[in-house]
Amino acid sequence: MNNINPKCENGQQHPFVNAENKYFLCCWLAAHRDLKNLEEFFADPNWLNKIDLTNYSLEEVETYYQKVRLSWNSQNCLSTCKEYCSNINSNDARKILI
Predict the structure, then answer these.
(1) pLDDT tens across 45-65, in order?
(2) N or C: which end of the chain has fewer CB within 10 A?
(3) Helix extents (H) in 1-98
(4) How far apart are CA 96 and CA 41, in angstroms?
(5) Nearest Cα to 44, choosing from 71, 73, 69, 65?
(6) Whose CA is closest to 31, among 90, 88, 83?
(7) Sign of dihedral through CA atoms 37, 5, 61, 17?
């Protein structure tokens, strides 16, 4: 089981909406290198459309992200969440995205 302390849930990180009106739980998920991880995680070729606030309400998009939330205490935890919100790394300096 993972030891995740999700910053998007505890006020340490805020939701992020990119220039294309795509909603992300945090800015780390929106990083270009993590988009591939999300595509694989959701296993849905239309996932980018489903997080678009032009097409869906915030409530609908938040519901779509429930899969991410449910993964925090499972073997299938999204790698970005493990990397940035693991309690093991909670004392590390903020990581810089490339």
Answers:
(1) 899 999 999 999 999 999 999
(2) C
(3) 7-10, 27-30, 32-42, 47-50, 58-64, 66-71, 79-85
(4) 23
(5) 65
(6) 83
(7) negative
